Amino acid sequence: MKVKIIKFDTYIDVIKKSVGSGLFQTVFAEVDGEKKDITNKGQYSCAVHVSSILLWFGFLKERHTGVAGLISDMASSGWYKIDKPKQGCVISWEKMLKNGEENEHIGFYVGDEIAISNERDAGVPIRHHYTYGERDGKPARKIEAIYWHPKLDNK
Prior knowledge:
Blueprint: H1 7-17, E1 28-31, E2 34-37, H2 46-56, H3 67-76, E3 80-82, E4 90-98, E5 101-111, E6 114-119, E7 124-129, E8 134-135, E9 138-139, E10 143-148
Antiparallel strand pairs: 1-2, 3-10, 4-5, 4-10, 5-6, 6-7, 8-9
């Protein structure tokens, strides 16, 4: 019997099944000698969510808690910018002010104008429109960049 894992389909399925999962909520670090959850129960977990899945599938070198470090690792791991979203790509959105803080955000595009990314208030990944809908005829949240990895072409 010959078995060949279908990596792309498995990758997309894992992203879709991550919705609602608390798996990405907590990252402990030693801060000034004390153990601390640096994601604050999932409030700062979008990079953890994305990097964990990319790492599992061999598309990244390490797990990240920050968007800037994740994007840097993606660039050195073969990810490049594309103009239009394709199923499986990674999207980074513009910084937004929330609860008095400016936040970067990153997530996955799964097709049909749907993205999955960690929702700050819920602390878990959610499904949403890839631009968070529209406001006054414009995307509610502007896409900063769309990233693709050549290995995703080998469906």
